[in-house]
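#lab-general

N.A. 3:47 PM
ok so I finally got the sequence cleaned up, no stray characters, all 207 residues accounted for. can someone with queue access submit it? mine expired

B.Y. 3:52 PM
send it over

N.A. 3:53 PM
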Amino acid sequence: MAATPESPEKEYCSTSEAAQRLGLSLGTVQQMVENGQLEGWKTAGGHRRIRVSSIEEFRARSMAGGGQSAVRASANVLQVLVAEDDRILQKLYEHTFSTWTLPLQVRMVSSGIDGLLEIGRVPPDLLITDLRMPGIDGFEMIRRLRADPQLQDLDIVVVSGLTEDEIVENGGLPADVILYSKPVPFRELKGYVQAKIMAMQRRGRPA
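B.Y. 4:20 PM
back already:
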């Protein structure tokens, strides 16, 4: 089905157009279609067509949980994004961070896709991520972040229950990614976060 030139708004768009609307990579959008997070279909030639309304609905749902204008309103606050699918660990992260009385703001996501979407909208100063997650896992999320020239310098900390051999079997991690083993080492994490905050304050820049 082809939209007529007079159509004020197309019903469907290409994968590249969807990626531009969402601020994500082509691969991420393709994965979202495969997972049913975006409504789409394939043409006879194998090209994906994605329903525009499903893109807008996804953006609206994401923004409803974000309050993104408030995120950047905190000028000297360290922005931390945690990607962890275990609800109990999410609560543990949130509770522990709240007791540190440090200038940081924490956002929480449950998958690599949601992590990429959040980072595409508002890049954090620090990403803390698990490796085993549904859909796009931590390995793939990190690979895509490091492939993006604008996000290659994002500080990433991995907290995982996988062994070193299991991590190697899955392709390993970039040398600049810090790796901690579960249970979550909050004492070490606090020291790392404090060091980043001090560096941020020395530079005198907003987070």
